Amino acid sequence: MLTIRDVQPATPRARVVRVDLDGHAFDYVAGQAVMVGTHGGDDRRAYSIASAPEDAKQLGCFELLVGLNDDGTPGPHLSLAAGALVDVEGPLGTFTFPEAPSERHFVFVAGGTGIAPLRAMLRHAILGSVAAERIGLLYSARTPDDFAFADEFRALASSGVIEFRQTITRDAQDWSGARGRIDRAALAALVHDPDTLCFVCGPAAMVADMPRLLGEIGVSRERIKIEEW
User: In this structure, is the dihedral angle defined by the CA atoms of residues 57, 65, 145 and 225, taken in order, positive or negative?
Assistant: First the structure.
C-alpha cells in the first residue's frame, strides 16, 4: 500500500500521478510497469513508470502517466486524489533499457501516452552511468495539446542534452511544426549512426511501421526494441 503524493495535468486527457514510496525500497528498471488500483479494490491496471530509477531515489516517489476517459476519470479502479491509498504490484515487464548497452547512441520513438516508459529510459540515459553520446526523441501525438512532458523535453533540447522532434497527426491551426505519421525521413533526421539503439512505444499501427522504416536507414532488427499499448 502506497500513497498518491500529488496529481498534475499532463495533457487534457492524461495526468501525471506521483506515488509516494513512503520510505519503502522500490527497485525497478527503466521501462518497467506496475499494476495499480485503489487500496482494497479488486481491479488493477498496468501503467508504465514514467520516471527514471534515479528520479525515484532522489524524490522518494515514482511517476505514472494516467490516461483519462471521457468522464475525466481513469475508471473505477483508481481515484486520482492526493492522499489516496493505492495497492501496487510490480515492477513488471521486459521492455527495459539494458543494464550495460554497448551502444552510445539512442533514439526513442513515442506515440501518445507511449511516451511514459520512454521518458523513464531517456532520463536514465541522462542521469545514469550509460555514457550516452547522443540521445534523440521523436514524439508523435494527435494534437499539440497531447504531448506530455513537452516543456521538459524542449528544455533538454535547448540545453543540448537531447535532440527533440515532434509531429502531429490531426489538423491544428496553431501548429507550425511537422505533421503526419512518423516516416523514414523523420527517423533519418535523428538516427545518425546504424549502431543506434532504438526504442519504440505507442499505438500498434505506429509500432508496426518502425522496424521496416528503421531497417531502411540501416538499423538492424536486434537494435530495435518495441512495445505496444
Answer: positive
pTM over 0.90: yes
| 105-228 CATH choice from 3.40.190.10, 3.40.50.80, 3.40.50.880, 3.10.180.10 | 3.40.50.80
pLDDT digits (tens, 9 = 90+) for 28-71: 999 999 999 999 998 999 999 999 999 999 999 999 999 999 99
Q: What long-range pairs does 180-189 form, CB within 8 A, spacing at least 24?
A: 181/140, 181/206, 181/209, 182/109, 182/111, 182/138, 182/140, 182/206, 182/209, 182/210, 182/213, 183/213, 184/213, 184/216, 184/217, 186/138, 187/107, 187/109, 187/138, 187/213, 187/214, 187/217, 188/217, 189/165
Contact 229, 113 (CB under 8 A): yes
In CATH, the architecture of 2-92 is Beta Barrel (2.40)
**Do residues 168 and 140 touch, judged by C-beta distance below 8 A?**
yes
Q: Report the distance separating Cα 183 and Cα 198, nearest Å.
A: 15
- What is the rounded CA–CA span in Å between residue 229 and residue 227? 7
- pLDDT, one tens digit per residue, over 147-178 is 999 999 999 999 999 999 999 888 777 877 77
